[in-house]
Write a structure and sequence with these properties.
The structure holds two protein chains of two kinds.
Chain A (H helix, E strand, L loop, with lengths): L2 E3 L4 E5 L4 E3 L2 E3 L4 E8 L5 E7 L5 E3 L5 E5 L4 E6 L8 E9 L9 E2 L3 E6 L1
Parallel strand pairs in A: 2-12
Antiparallel strand pairs in A: 1-4, 3-9, 5-6, 5-10, 7-8, 8-9, 10-11, 10-12
Chain B lengths: L3 E4 L2 E4 L4 E8 L5 E7 L6 E7 L2 E5 L6 E7 L2 E7 L7 E8 L9 E2 L3 E5 L1
Parallel strand pairs in B: 2-11
Antiparallel strand pairs in B: 1-3, 3-8, 4-5, 4-9, 5-6, 7-8, 9-10, 9-11
The chains are: A mainly beta, B mainly beta.
Chain lengths: ~120, ~110
């Protein structure tokens, strides 16, 4: 079985400060990990992914995420938050070795609010 | 701009109506998905099409009927829906079902059942 947890329903951060949105996962084999963002009245927008290779992954809009195998985590980070980053963020996982057998499992989502 | 186009953006229908949601992608993707999303919740997978064939049905009630006329189009036919079916319906596509490439989502159809 595969699962993903986002322990914080809500994260508030001041504009210009660094932000972190947390994600932990559980899979039997190697994970494929993804971050998506959803703005109001929009679909999910892909930010970045980890498949293999460097543990630090850089994505769109200045976001990055660090894959930590020992802690089974894939936290999303940004050095300096913008008000426009305020949105709903989803972490997702799929077991990489499962071929087409498994679909994406999404976390419960974290609402990020960046305060001006 | 999203590469997956969904129409209509909004739909209000009565419980006895029949309507269809449409989704189109021109990225050459061979897997297409329907998701249901309630407010502030993660998307819930409904159906997966792979190479135009239905490969996953997540125990969705028969009042939802998917159709994949060709590799670029995906429809969701609706009939006799219930108020609890009111939600955002998202279409997505990916290179194929087993790919490590991300799914690309449309902006959804917001469905309200009266």
């Amino acid at each position: 079985a595969q699962s993903v947890a986002q322990p914080e329903d809500q994260v508030n951060v001041a504009e210009g400060n660094p932000l972190t949105v947390k994600c932990t996962y559980s899979v039997s084999g190697n994970p494929y990990l993804f971050w998506y963002v959803q703005y109001p009245n929009r679909g999910l927008q892909f930010l970045l992914k980890y498949i293999t290779g460097d543990n630090l992954v850089k994505g769109s809009y200045g976001f990055e995420a660090e894959f930590n195998k020992s802690q089974t985590s894939f936290h999303l980070k940004k050095p300096s938050a913008l008000v426009s980053d305020s949105a709903l963020y989803f972490c997702a996982v799929r077991e990489g070795s499962s071929g087409s057998a498994r679909q994406l499992t999404f976390g419960s989502g974290t609402q990020l609010t960046v305060l001006p | 701009d999203t590469e997956v186009t969904q129409t209509p953006k909004h739909l209000v229908m009565g419980m006895t109506n029949k309507k269809s949601l449409k989704c189109e992608q021109h990225m050459g993707h061979r897997a297409m998905y329907w998701y249901k999303q309630k407010a502030k919740k993660p998307p819930e997978l409904m159906f997966v099409y792979s190479y135009e064939k239905l490969s996953i049905n997540e125990s969705v009630p028969s009042r939802f009927s998917p159709e994949c006329p060709n590799s670029s189009l995906l429809n969701l036919h609706l009939h006799a829906l219930q108020p609890e079916d009111s939600a955002l319906y998202l279409c997505a596509s990916s290179q194929d079902r087993g790919s490590n490439q991300p799914q690309h989502f449309g902006d959804g159809t917001r469905l309200s059942i009266l």
